Amino acid sequence: MKDSILIINEKDNVAVALKDFDAGQKASAGDMEPIRVLEPVPAAHKIALRDIEPGENIIKYGETVGKSTARIKKGAWVHAHNLEGGR
Amino acid sequence: MNNPGKIYGYKRADGRFGTRNHVLVMATVSCVNGVINRVAKEVPDAVCIPHGYGCGRGGRDREILFRVFSGIIRHPNIGAVVLVGLGCERSNIKSLLPLIDTSEKPVTCLNVQEEGGSLKTADKAVKAALDHLSAISGAKREPMDWKDMLVSIECGGSDAFSGITANVAMGAVSDWLIDQGASVMFGENTEMIGTAHVLARRAQNSAVAEQITQMVERAEDLTKQILGKKAGLAISPGNMDGGMSSIAEKSMGCIVKGGTRPIVEVVDYGQPPSKKGLILQDGPGYDPDSLTGFAASGSQLMFFTTGRGSPAGFPGIPVIKAASNSRTYRAMEDDMDINAGELMEGKPLNRLTDEIIDRMIRVINGELSKPEANRMDVFTMLTVNPSF
Questions:
Q1: How far is B341 from chain A (nearest CA, A)?
Q2: Which residues, listed in sequence order, are joined to residue B185 by a DSSP beta bridge?
Q3: Which of A8, A44, A80 comes nearest B160 by C-beta?
Q4: Which of A65, A69, B12, B125 is least crowded, fewest Cβ atoms below 10 Å from its Cβ?
Q5: What is the pLDDT, as a whole number, of residue B103?
Q6: Which runs of E-coded beta strand occur in B116-248?
Q7: Distance CA B107, CA B358 (A)
Q8: Beta strands at B7-11 and B142-144: parallel, antiparallel or unpaired
Q9: Quick one: pLDDT at residue B239?
Q10: Does B94 have pLDDT greater than 70?
Q11: Does B350 touch chain A (CB under 8 A)?
Q12: A70 touches chain B (CB under 8 A)
């Protein structure tokens, strides 16, 4: 099956959507267990790969790109509404 | 890729290898560009560089001018040189020659003020260029090692996909190159803002880490001073629409093109590295200026990732263009070597990486990249002060 998300670094807790997702669609890359996408996510945006607690680091490229401001469920859209970038 | 493939280049007197064997015809000041343009018409096989520099600047601009000119003239892709000067300019041939070891390659010097004017100079330059072409045309490629390669990576005209397709693939290619023993350089200090701590952590030692921190601080201060407090520190609504949620995320999308290996050295704009490995250049984000810095540092091959679609190349040095998305690739297929947008269509990263490496090896060995075939030559350089 074609990859529908991109996990840039193995440390990442978010993946990049390779297409526009609707709620309920399955997302996967390589031989990973597919995850259910909980809400619409546009292509190039981020999807949580696991449950993320408030205040936890958001990891993409293997590096911290922000902190979570809410409880983010696996399969949820991660963006400015639940990620605080600092600076 | 298990078999890295063999690479071949032109061995030069200073021990470096060229991926090309060109005759360079270069102005030492903009006043004589017309002469260079006449030569370009008569000798299309020569690499002709007219440009806007050579006089009327001082201080750091003078340093950069001499470093860049001598770096381009000495570049291993250049087998012979015709320098066309005026005579009274700042970077006149007499001042340049001590920086060039003329035993390395034949250099013909002509000054318009001494050769009887522009037309007579052009005639002499044409003859010299043709003689040089004939003299170097018999040179043969020899096996070279990856440690003889300095590959640079530029990103320009970026879009929301650059940081998740083309630059990610380039990061994997960069790691592969370092692991083969090659050196890789990337720059664009303004695009490192917000990631100094990440880059510094990857420095080979604390001195390099300190240089990285200072370089990014200077870039940030200058950006604030000239473009305003928020410039470069905020992300635009367009970035947000593209899925970027923070400045750190945006900058990571830029620096990911350099891969993950330790950073061994920070070099000034156009300065040749003294170490092997991953190198940072303290240079600007403006693509043509940045490419000139890489070239003057001795890069024999450059990658250029682009989202919106820049066709720019560099005189005499192959530039491989990678589009970040399929729409741009299809819209500018004449200019694009690689479609990294295929990642968005589900192509596995390792397959794309292997294809880029394969294409790179072919281009090193002589296959023309798109900007090279199209002669999309651009030559500009960093200046930091006004002209006088």
A1: 10
A2: B152, B279
A3: A44
A4: A69
A5: 85
A6: 142-144, 150-156, 183-186
A7: 35
A8: antiparallel
A9: 82
A10: yes
A11: no
A12: no
pLDDT in tens, A18-43: 999 999 999 999 889 999 999 999 99
CA distances (Å), origin B10, targets B26, B84, B107: 21, 25, 18
pLDDT given at position B203: 97
Residue at token pair 């978010």? A14
Contacts with B164 from chain A: Cβ below 8 Å: 6, 8, 16, 44
The amino acid that residue B208 corresponds to is V
Q: What is the mean pLDDT of residues B22-36?
A: 98
The answer to whether B252 contacts A66, with C-beta atoms less than 8 Å apart, is: no
What integer pLDDT is reported at residue B242 of this predicted model? 86
Asked if the C-beta of B253 comes within 8 angstroms of chain A's C-beta atoms, the answer is yes
DSSP B233-283: TS--HHHHHTT--SHHHHHHHHHGGG-SSPEEEEEETTPPPSSSSEEEEE-
Would the pTM count as exceeding 0.90? yes
Cα–Cα dist A8/B348, whole Å: 11
Joined tokens for residue B356: 């880029």
**Among B60, B53, B62, which Cα is nearest to B85's?**
B53
Would you state the structure tokens that stand for residue B231, as one six-digit string? 């410039």
Task: Please state, for a pLDDT cut of 90, what percent of chain B lies above it.
Answer: 85
The answer to whether residue A76 scores a pLDDT higher than 80 is yes
Domains of chain A listed by start with CATH number = 1-87 (2.30.130.110)
Q: How far is CA B164 from CA B171, B269, B372, in A?
A: 11, 27, 27
Q: Which of B8-12, B199-203, B268-272, B343-347 has the lowest mean pLDDT?
A: B343-347
Two structure tokens written together for B60: 């750091």
Cα–Cα distance between B34 and B376 in angstroms, integer?
19
For residue B127, count other CB atoms closer than 10 A to its CB: 15
The span from the CA of B253 to the CA of B380, in Å, is 26
